[in-house]
Amino acid sequence: MPKRRSDIGAVSWRKSSYSGGGGNACLEVADNISHTVPVRDSKAPARTPLSFTPHAWQQFVTGVRQGTLTA
Description:
This protein is α+β, with helices and mostly antiparallel strands. Helices cover 24% and strands 18% of the residues. The chain is built from two helices and four strands, in the order αββββα. The chain has helices at 5-8, 54-66; strands spanning 14-15, 27-29, 37-41, 50-52. The protein has a four-stranded antiparallel sheet with strand order 1-2-3-4. A hairpin with an 8-residue loop joins strand 3 and strand 4. The chain is flat, with a radius of gyration of 12 Å. It starts with a helix and ends in a 5-residue tail after the last helix. Mean pLDDT is 80; it is low at 1-6.
């Protein structure tokens, strides 16, 4: 079951390794929640994060790593 919005606020966010080094284009992900992977823009942490299934997120990450998708 996906976490409710109130539960998302308590997760540990980490900056994506694919985020820009300048500190102004950062994607943050919380991958320690079962059944959902929330993703947010570090410039707007109060906005509701996007949520992906773990399978969909893994496919995206694999595509970026293989160069078949761009972030």
